[in-house]
Write a structure and sequence with these properties.
Elements (H helix, E strand, L loop, with lengths): L1 E5 L3 H12 L3 E6 L19 E2 L3 H5 L2 E3 L5 H6 L2 H10 L4 E4 L3 E4 L4 H11 L4 E4 L2 E8 L25 E8 L4 E3 L2 E4 L14 H8 L4 E7 L3 E2 L3 H5 L4 E11 L2 E12 L3 E3 L1 H7 L10 E6 L6 H14 L18 H8 L12 H12 L1 E5 L1 E2 L7 E6 L14 E2 L1 E3 L7 E2 L4 H15 L2
Helix pairs in contact: 1-5, 1-12, 9-11
The structure holds flavin-adenine dinucleotide (FAD).
Length: 428
């Protein structure tokens, strides 16, 4: 069979390699000069290639449409991904949270392994501009019968087209029996994912779930963030509230930036945001999660006794990083000249509250271009979860981030690109 893969990224190269092993003739269209550029920025250049968990555990980390992955993940779980990369010569290691990385800590090694896996494919430097679609005759509808409860329900219309190839931006036509769209989402467009797959899908009549940034930094109009920009906090707990209700809580690292907050905790929290026009979001940071409010009160009392003659800010030296001390004093509302031994019990209690519940308003998501992934995309209702074939056009398939499936951080997004790609190739 002639297989055309549009997009030589994680999903595209995985699909190409797997289709070759099924004896198919494979062409990959890649519009960037080098394929799989995005792999190089994954895991901060180390590529968290999958997560060493079972398929069942994996599904708990998929944010959108986990059920869609049931079949493909069952057939190609993380263990198979690890086996495959090891068979391609990549030594792997498992880190915190069962994140899997190459021992070399080099994403390039994963990229090279994928290229080796797909090395018998013809990789053509061209972009896919348009699908070549042939209309399919629809079965004639039976004449409408009077209200009859025994009458079978109206059948859903079958595919309206057959996809027979793609027209490239060069004008060249690429004919194929199966066309896989693996063009990724809209984030990090410099790596080649510019949303073209959405246009191709729309051409075949697919519904698109609005693409929004996910795993992204968050914008806050709170001026304190800018005052502390560059400050990274380790071992803090971030709780995200939606309309006053906690919807996410995790301990880890975060960062204040000139526009709001970033860092691993923030990215994870961002994937829990819903419609920001309808809901109000706030983040609360517990700066001392290891201490209860009572313990923190006692600790503050001890510190203030030791630093008795220091002014308010100086009294915080052992408790807070330097760039946070003046911001804390301002939010605390205490006269900065107050000496530690003059601070009242009530003021210490207020300080405990600020340190355990540092509030940051969340006003917007960061932009799509800087998001780790794009949430949304081709509606999975219109794609067969076993074969990845479009229900709108025969011979058309989707895999990877172009689909409306996305997961949290931890190697899950690459894994879902890999398993959907394998499902495509192994069910042709
Ligand atoms: C900074 C960052 C860090 C990340 N870290 C991790 C991580 O550690 N672990 C993890 O699991 N996930 C991570 N991800 C997410 C992961 O990289 C993506 O989910 C994954 O790459 C999606 O694979 P894909 O093949 O669907 O899309 P992509 O990898 O984006 O590949 C799409 C390919 O299609 C090509 N293309 C697009 N349009 C056309 C066209 N019209 N014609 C021809 N070619 C086209 C593109 O050039 C590109 O090569 C990270 C993402 C980012 C941005």
């Amino acid at each position: 069979m002639k297989v055309l893969v549009v997009g030589g990224g994680a999903a595209g190269l995985m699909a190409a390699g797997a289709a070759l092993r099924q004896g198919h003739e494979v062409t990959v269209l890649e519009h960037m000069e080098k394929p799989a550029q995005k792999i190089l920025v994954t895991g901060k250049g180390r590529c968290n290639v999958t997560n060493d968990c079972t398929a069942e555990e994996f599904l708990h980390h998929v944010r959108t449409n986990p059920r869609f992955l049931f079949s493909s993940l069952g057939a190609f779980p993380p263990a198979r991904t690890m086996e495959l990369f090891e068979s391609l010569g990549v030594e792997l290691k498992v880190e915190r949270g069962r994140r899997v990385f190459p021992v070399s800590d080099k994403a390039e090694e994963i990229r090279q392994a994928l290229l080796r896996y797909a090395d018998r494919a013809d990789i053509v430097h061209d972009g896919a501009k348009k699908l070549l679609l042939e209309p399919l005759a629809q079965p004639e509808e039976a004449p409408a019968a009077p209200e009859d409860p025994r009458r079978p329900k109206k059948k859903k219309p079958g595919p309206a087209y057959r996809c027979v190839g793609v027209r490239g931006t060069s004008g060249r036509e690429y004919k194929a029996d199966a066309v896989l769209v693996a063009t990724g989402g809209l984030s990090y467009p410099t790596t080649g994912s510019t949303g073209d797959g959405y246009k191709l899908a729309r051409q075949a009549g697919h519904t698109l779930v609005e693409p929004v940034p996910s795993l992204v930094s968050l914008v806050s109009h709170d001026a304190d963030c800018k005052k502390m920009m560059g400050l990274a906090l380790k071992n803090v707990t971030l709780t995200l509230h939606e309309d006053g209700k906690a919807i996410f809580e995790e301990q880890g690292e975060m960062l204040f930036t000139h526009f709001g907050i970033s860092g691993p905790l923030t990215l994870s929290a961002s994937s829990h945001l819903g419609d920001m026009k309808k809901h109000k979001y706030e983040a609360f940071i517990d700066l001392k999660p290891a201490l209860s409010e009572e313990q923190l009160y006692d600790r503050i009392t001890r510190d203030f006794a030791l630093l008795a003659n220091h002014a308010a800010q100086g009294a915080l030296v052992k408790l807070l990083p330097s760039s946070m001390q003046p911001v804390m004093v301002a939010r605390w509302g205490i006269d900065p000249a107050t000496r530690a031994n003059q601070i009242t019990r009530e003021q210490k209690r207020e300080l405990v509250q600020l340190m355990k519940h540092w509030r940051v308003s969340i006003d917007a998501r960061g932009d799509l271009a800087h998001a780790v992934i794009t949430s949304g995309g081709v509606s999975v209702r219109e794609v067969d979860p076993k074969t990845m074939q479009s229900k709108k056009a025969l011979g058309l398939y989707f895999a990877g981030e172009v689909l409306d499936v996305d997961a949290y951080t931890g190697g899950y997004n690459l894994q879902l690109a890999f398993c959907t790609a394998q499902s495509f190739a192994n069910n042709l």
